[in-house]
Amino acid sequence: MRRKIAALLALAMLGMTPCAMAAEVTMEDTGITPYRIEEQAVITDVQTSLHEGDITLVPAITVRTDTWDQLTLKLREGTVLADAADGSLKRMTDVASPDSLLREGDTILVTYGSAVEQSEPAQTNAELIVVNPGEGTTPHLLDAEVVYRDLTATFLTNNGSLIVRVDRATPVYTLYGEKETNARIRMGTQLVAWYDIVLTSYPGQTTPEKVVLLPDQDRTFTIVTEDGATVAEGRIENGVAMVPVRKIAEVLGYTVTWNNTEESVQLSREDATMTINLGEDRYCFGDAREGLSFGAASYEVNGTSWVPAEVFTLLGHKLQLLTGNVLHLSSVIEA
What we know:
- The chain folds into three domains: 2-32 and 139-213, CATH 2.40.50; 36-131, CATH 2.40.50; 219-329, Copper amine oxidase-like, N-terminal domain (Copper Amine Oxidase, Chain A, domain 1, 2-Layer Sandwich).
- Helix content is 9%, strand content 42%.
- The two termini are 21 Å apart.
- The radius of gyration is 21 Å and the shape is elongated.
- By secondary structure, the protein is mainly beta.
- It has five helices and 29 strands.
């Protein structure tokens, strides 16, 4: 399935539209397990101010969906609340009166992780809650799994099931309203995108009306090869997916050489070479003098050099951060 996704993505990046289907293709049709669920819900109970003595409990709402008769959604610090009617977005902790927005009987759109605790009732953490759905363009929570650039920031998301194109005219903001550019969208970036129309192809394709970048949250991910072997652990730092360069390069068949005088790392494999200068966010393929920025400088800590994962795309390798916490890499160099 990963090969099918990669092939379709390659066609899309070359400007060739994947074949449109007679009916919409869903992730269920492909056998891919989603790592988060988005569905309509009706609020059946609200617990936004809970106390047991001096202890304040995690606020929560209980909802009824097509999947669950009862599902309790915990409203944690990372939960974001969007209003489809006015296009606003804020952290739940920044909402002055949650009770005024989340009322029993209201219909909302909820996004939550696919790992649900099988208690009574079932419970999990809410990631995104949309009030007033249907009264404006719908916001969706997405992770950038692969990013390709020309005049746009085009990224693959939802386990490879959706291509999102953010062009220069698309408004991009931070959660607190500051203007940003699509250059801030990197592999591992988490964002909310407003769109309703998706081309019924596989992968689906859309161009959002606007994008809000969520605050960077450092986390780790597992790096695996095409045959499923675990290589190493990577990490998202300041919104950029970083990987240990030697471990990844050697798995991909490169000879890795450390230059102590220049404080640089050289990768070489057949006719593909790259020199990485520590402390610089500028990465060049071969003898090129002008490099690309991938959002973070390379660095060394405890004898291990780290670089943005996207550096290996300069050498022609496919990388995809699937399920939000597993980076798949290919040893094949694409022409």
